[in-house]
Write a structure and sequence with these properties.
- This protein has 74 residues and is an alpha+beta fold.
- The chain has one domain (4-67).
- It has one helix spanning 48-65, and strands spanning 4-10, 14-21, 24-31, 39-45, 70-71.
- The protein has a five-stranded antiparallel beta sheet with strand order 4-3-2-1-5, with helices on one face.
- Strand 3 (24-31) and strand 4 (39-45) form a beta hairpin.
- The longest helix has 18 residues, at 48-65.
Length: 74
């Protein structure tokens, strides 16, 4: 199975990652710089469009906590 991983957005200490595979998509919010990429949140979605909507909601929530939230340039 080939998983594709893409960073959607980051803050100073957190990143939001899309992991897609043949069975759907996984959203992970990870602590940046933590050993083994500590996962703070993991959610599974049947479609990428649902995942992208949730990622936007989370980004807005984390932006309130951290004024340096940036979309990923990857």
């Amino acid at each position: 199975m080939n998983n594709d991983e893409r960073v959607l957005w980051t803050t100073d200490d957190v990143e939001c990652v899309l992991i897609s595979c043949c069975s759907g998509a996984e959203l992970q919010v990870r602590r940046v710089g933590a050993k083994d990429g500590e996962i703070l949140l993991r959610e599974l979605y049947p479609t990428k469009s649902d995942l992208y909507e949730r990622a936007r909601e989370l980004r807005n929530g984390f932006a309130i906590q951290s004024p340096t939230t940036q979309p990923s340039r990857r």
